[in-house]
Amino acid sequence: MSETVTLTRPVFEKIVEQLVYIEENMNEIIELHSPVTEDERESLKAYLLSYVGKMEEVLEKIRVVPNIFKRDTGPEPIENINRFPFAIIGSTVVLEDSDTKEKVRYRIAFPYENSTAYDISFLSGTAKALLLKETGRSVCINTREGEKKYRILSISLNQIF
Fold first, then answer.
1. How far apart are CA 66 and CA 9, in angstroms?
2. Cα 135 to Cα 28, 59, 72, 81, distances in angstroms
3. Pick the CATH number of 92-156 from 3.90.45.10, 3.10.50.30, 3.40.190.10, 3.40.50.700
4. What is the full per-residue pLDDT of the chain (161 aa) written as tens digits?
5. With the CA atoms of 30, 33, 36 and 39 taken in that order, what torsion angle do they form, in degrees rounded to the nearest 10?
6. Which of these, 13, 102, 124, 136, could form a disulfide with 97 (CB 3.0-4.6 Å)?
7. What angle do helix axes 9-33 and 38-59 make, rounded to 10 degrees?
C-alpha cells in the first residue's frame, strides 16, 4: 500500500488502542477463542500476527486530521477521510452478492462487542474472509446455503467509534 490513509484523530487513536490490545493480550485471545488442536491454535496466532504486521505497516502512512465534523481537513476531500484501503477490525464493509446483486453490510468487531445488528466477530469465518481485503476484491464466504461469492463495495470507519 503506497497511498496515504487519512483518519480523524479519534479513529486513529482507536486503531492504535486495538493493536496494543491485540499485542498485549494475544495469548489470552488465543486461550479464550481458539479451537482445541495445536495446529488450530497456531493458525489463530498466525492470523493475529499477520493482522498486526499489516496494520503496523499502514500506521507509518496514516495522516491524522482533526475531527471530520469541524471540516478542518485541509485539502483532503471529506469523503476520503476515515476510508481504509482494506477491511480492519472496526470497519463497516458493504458487500454485493455476485449472483443476486443484493447488498449486505457487516461491521467487523471484537468478540465481546455487539453494538449493531450487523456486528460479526473478527474471529468468525465471515470476518476472516473479509479482514485485510481491499475494496473491489471478490471474496468467497461460507453461508448456511453454501459458499457465496461477494464483491467488496466499500469499507468505512465512520460509524464505529
1. 6
2. 31, 19, 26, 15
3. 3.10.50.30
4. 457 888 888 889 989 999 999 999 998 888 887 667 888 888 889 999 999 999 999 988 898 988 765 455 455 556 678 878 899 998 999 999 999 999 999 999 988 776 777 889 998 889 999 999 999 999 999 888 889 999 999 998 865 44
5. -50
6. 102
7. 170
